Protein: Pantothenate synthetase
Amino acid sequence: MTLILRDKASLRAWRAKLTEGTRLGFVPTMGALHAGHMSLVAQARAAADIVIASIFVNPLQFGPNEDLSRYPRPIEADIEKLEAAGVDALFLPSVEDMYPTGASTMVEETLVSGPLCGAVRPGHFRGVTTVVLKLFNLVQPHVAVFGQKDAQQCAVIERMVRDLDVPVEILRGPIMREADGLALSSRNVYLSVEDRAAAPLLHQSLQTVAAAYEAGERDAEKLAQIGLDVLAQSDRIKVQYWEVRDPESLGGIARVGASGALLAVAAHLGTTRLIDNLLLGGDV
Structure:
């Protein structure tokens, strides 16, 4: 049975009772759980003695015209999935508990968070780093697992942990996909039938560019254009960005070299925003 901890006081009391030397794994989520989240839980279980998850739809990382109010919140179904996965505890706080009246401190990473989603969602990663650091301070995990689908989020959190000397090991879980290649996402439920049919083109564009890279293409601009050409097959896809970036700093590159590259795409299908990415290996 998964223990439900509904406020910070309960979490602190639970954490204080853990035996010294117990390795604690943590999977922070916003709920609407799917097989991708469950793979992160399995990874945490393999790396720790006890696993705690959190479900918190963080208002700080949503912009004024984004989907905070309609973000899916199937909490009972989520709890059932976590119990089936053997999660030991679930932290399920309220917004008021996480952000008490008068709270005014924010945490901001200023380099890795700048391009890609950071450029089109101002303030998003400041909300992410603020809530993640708060969760790390409360849970005090030894290891935390985040999904590679949110590659920039992973990079921002890794940089925050490094820069602020946070004693948490960060693990990345691989992207989980539908049979047709669409990356699993809580937002996929928003897709219309027509948009769902077009959505796998995001992954196809990444695969097509990876094939061009394997065939010898190294020019970043040409690789990105190949990806855009794939997405142009559907007028339902409104591309926000298609980028070839340094895999660590997420800075722009002219050519894919020894360090490889992150291929990253974001697009709207109807009112739903989807992201996907793929890592290219570097030249030897």
Q: What stands out?
A: DSSP finds ten helices and nine strands in the chain. The chain has two domains: 3-173, 186-279.
